[in-house]
Amino acid sequence: MQWYQAVFSRIEDVTERHKRFWLTIEGIKNFEFTPGQFITLELPIDEEKRPKRWRHYSIASPPNGNTIELIIVRVPGGKGTTYLFDVAKVGDKVPLRGPLGKFTLPEDISSVDICLIATGTGIAPFRSMLWHIHNKNIPHKNLFLIQGARNLKELLYYEEFLDLEKRLKNFRYIPVLSRETPPNWHSYKGYVHQVYKEMFKPREDILFYLCGLRNMIDEARDNLTQMGFNKKQIKFEAFD
Prior knowledge:
Layout: E1 3-13, E2 18-25, E3 38-42, E4 54-58, E5 67-73, H1 79-86, E6 93-100, E7 113-119, H2 124-135, E8 143-149, H3 158-167, E9 171-177, E10 188-189, H4 192-199, E11 206-213, H5 214-227, E12 234-239
Parallel strand pairs: 7-8, 7-11, 8-9, 9-10, 11-12
Antiparallel strand pairs: 1-2, 1-6, 2-5, 3-4, 3-6
């Protein structure tokens, strides 16, 4: 797998715990990847063995030229995110490898519903997928995005998905908050699990994609199989 040189072309604070990073990959016009894939960064942190300097991040942007976007949460005490949040600045360069991973949609999604379930920065691959479907006008059936967060501030890309819901045919956005009920909140309060339990009954023409912390993934997989869905209908990528 090829390594590239990438430069931080933009960095943006989102919350106290989240940042958006744009990386422009040098030497190429287009960075070819399939939405849902991830990249590896080799960070200049205090680790003797090279693989221990590697950090893996899902691409949050759709394919478009040689710049990609990442959405990253600070890990308390983590060497990688300490560097990214406290040291990295626009113009700095970093080795990048990719694309990697098979957490991608089928080539043909015209005859199957897709339900994307995310918490935290697990939203990244789904943002890439949905914008790609929109940008390329890819034929599709029904698309659902169930996104969970503790509060409205940490509901990443919230306003963007509300806008995308108006633009993208047959797309429904369902945000869920577990610890806050803002004024005029008209969506769910609680956890993502109650939503898909309420919305779906066993059938063969639907695929579930799960992305987020492992506890959420494990609970959702157990719930969906107990509901009667086949394990082949459930795709997942967990963040430890």
